[in-house]
Amino acid sequence: MDNEIFDFFNTDLQYVHGVGPVLATKFNEVLGGRRILDFLLHIPSYVRPREILDSVIGAQNGDTITISLQIKSHKKGGVFHGRRAPTQIVCADKFAAPVTIQFFNTKFLDYWIEKLPIGAWRIISGKLEFNNRNGAVINHPDFIELPDNANKIPRHQAIYPSGEGLTQKTFSAVRDQIFNIMHERVAAYKLSERMLELLDALEHVHYPETNDDLAPNGQYIVKLAYSELLAHQSAIAINRRARMAQKNLRPVRESQKNLIDKFYKILPFELTGAQKRTIDEIFADFQKPVPMMRLVQGDVGSGKTMVAMAAAVKMAESGAQTVLLAPTDTLAQQHFAKLKPMCDELGLVCDVLTGRDKGVARREKLISLKSGRTKIAIGTHALFSEDVEYKDLGLVIIDEQHRFGVDQRSTMRAKGNNPDMLALSATPIPRTLSMTVYGDMDISIINEKPAGRMPIKTSKLPVNRVGALIERIAPQVANGAKIFWVCPLVEESENSDMMAAQSRFEELNKHFPGTGLCHGQMDKKSRDKVMEEFAAPESKMRVLVSTTVIEVGIDVPSATIMVIENAERFGLAALHQLRGRVGRGSQQSFCILLYGNNISPDGIKRLDTLCETDDGFVIAEQDLMMRGVGELLGTKQSGWIQYHFVNYREHRDLFKLAQSAAMNNNSDDDIWAKTLRHIFNCSTIAGA
Predict the structure, then answer these.
(1) How far is CA 442 from CA 146, 291, 301, 471, 497, in A?
(2) Strands 143-145 and 121-131
(3) For residue 416, what pLDDT band results from cuts at 50, 70 and 90?
């Protein structure tokens, strides 16, 4: 039975010969776990070929070679006259060509000299370099073996993503131990054909012969990627079926009064067709006997907030409450300032609750929520603190939903009787990605901009033209224009040529007195105060120098110019989000992308893409194609799937196959699907 091998999979790495608790802890930091299974799912990133040579004559600088050398002399290193000199072992190959082996670490000098006695032959493997002083040199060889042990040096070495305290030799030794034990276990167990095929695929990718074996289209990588996708997609299918099968999980609420028509009348603009379509989809969900799980994807400035407000008003018609969850205090306060006047006109009590609220003010807000008087509550994670109670929580709206983890969303849901969930995302992602990232959610897309919004004119400019740029924007600042100026760093660094916000602030303040500065190292109150001052219409602060803390969370309709320094260092999605801070009013807005001298071809391509289009979905697709999902989503995004073998760009057909198999088969009862869910740790992958 396949489950017999799971005891082996779940064995702590410290019990593998030669590991122990210290190394197991180091593995945990790299693998994200310390089981044998965690090691098996952590595959090499590339193969380093080791060419066997008889002589260094004709070899290329930078080649990794394996060669037989005779030791001729020793020159002990150390610190002489304040300069560090390496220990040098002078050798000769079979054709008497000289080769110098160098060691810079003085701790093991005696050990190396003893291991390489004069006159002896040794098999040496490492990176070959040529320099004018010593000729052919190998610094710190990867392998030193006796001639009889030449087979211990691999012809093709698998190189693993590693971390501090873990060498490639350690990875290879642990890998060999694991697969030796596995062969013994497999012989003793009665495993299914599919499990044997999966283990065979894992072995092939841990012992690759060429980089083609590790490529996305490699035979065994494809097999493992499909298995991983089937595991996740079957978990999603189970969640969806379970949700749809459970009737009457929450009441289908009847409207007690007509507020939605009044809401439409007080809007100072006409909703777009995409907004109306999305609202209709949400209202249809409200009439179903199962809780809504819907994601609204819309580009920056597409009007997602008004769609969310319509949903909250519709919920208030039945007397139920809505919470709007924002990732930051600033964004929560911004939503409150925007929606409170509308709620007042509709006769709805709207309040804001964040970590700022203390004492009597907080208690009064909690009483109003518990009594049901407050119909719309806007805030941060404070909305699901333990002491917060609701009379009838009907709808949870999550803004910038990727910033909240599954556990946080589950906690919020537990505050009501299976309330409807509406997630908003201003980070457009390709459809293929949506199916996986957002689990079993239904998806609505707002792909139109509100009427009157003008496209942002985007251009790129070398950073050495910054003086001319300042002269060009000075008249606009004098006429009342507001400008965001974004820098990638807070302070200058010896290790970076990127512009720092502090330096740029000091420079711009000479030209535009009263310039503001905002960055992540400031305390929250100071940062919020600067942002609020810049956003105030009557404020004399015309220029705000900032790091990316303004990417989400500040809405300044009067801001018409965005300058991004070292724009080539940002991803497309981040650049698009930053650009979206302007163009939120009716005036023509501009985005200037300043790039450095060392811009790469990919960097130019990214900036050109921004200059050519402001369609977030086109940009997201291009971002995915250029960078892949690892950088596109980041590795720490809460609640998002981090695959081991799946490549979003190369495995699109596998997505469709796995999704079809998961939806058409009974994944609940499929023993192999259960096994895969266990292996890939997605048995409870709630897409919520």
Answers:
(1) 63, 12, 22, 49, 45
(2) antiparallel
(3) confident
Q: Do 530 and 517 form a contact (C-beta atoms < 8 A)?
A: yes
Q: Please name which of 225, 244, 271 lies closest in space to residue 646, comparing C-alpha atoms.
A: 225
386-411 tens-digit pLDDT: 899 999 999 999 987 555 555 566 67
548, 490 in Cβ contact below 8 A? no
- SS3 state at 318: coil
Residue 374's identity, in one-letter code, is T
Dihedral pair phi/psi, residue 530, rounded to 5°: -65, -45
- Residues 560 and 567: their CA atoms lie apart, in Å, by 18
Distances 367 to 31, 362, 388, 393, 442 between C-alpha atoms, Å: 47, 9, 9, 14, 34
Residue 435 has pLDDT above 70, yes or no: no
Which strand (E) or helix (H) includes residue 646? none
Q: Going edge to edge, which strands form the sheet with 321-325?
A: 349-353, 374-379, 321-325, 393-398, 420-425, 293-298, 442-446
Angle at 233 between CA 230 and CA 234, to 5 degrees: 80
Three-state secondary structure of 491-503: CCCCCCCCCEHHH
Task: Write out the H or E segment, with its range, that includes residue 629.
Answer: helix 629-633
Q: What is the pTM of this model?
A: 0.66
- Check if the beta carbon of residue 567 is closer than 8 Å to that of residue 548: no
Residue 238 CA from chain centroid, whole number = 26
Residue at token pair 């799971």: 6
- Reference 128, options 162, 172, 98; nearest CA is 98
Check residue 483 and report its DSSP letter. E
Q: Is the Cβ–Cβ distance between 324 and 307 less than 8 Å?
A: no
In this structure, which amino acid lies at residue 276? K
Calculate ∠ Cα 503-508-509, nearest 5°: 100
Supply φ then ψ for residue 566, to 5 degrees.
50, 45
Burial status of residue 484 (CB atoms within 10 A of its CB: 0-12, 13-18, 19 or more)? buried
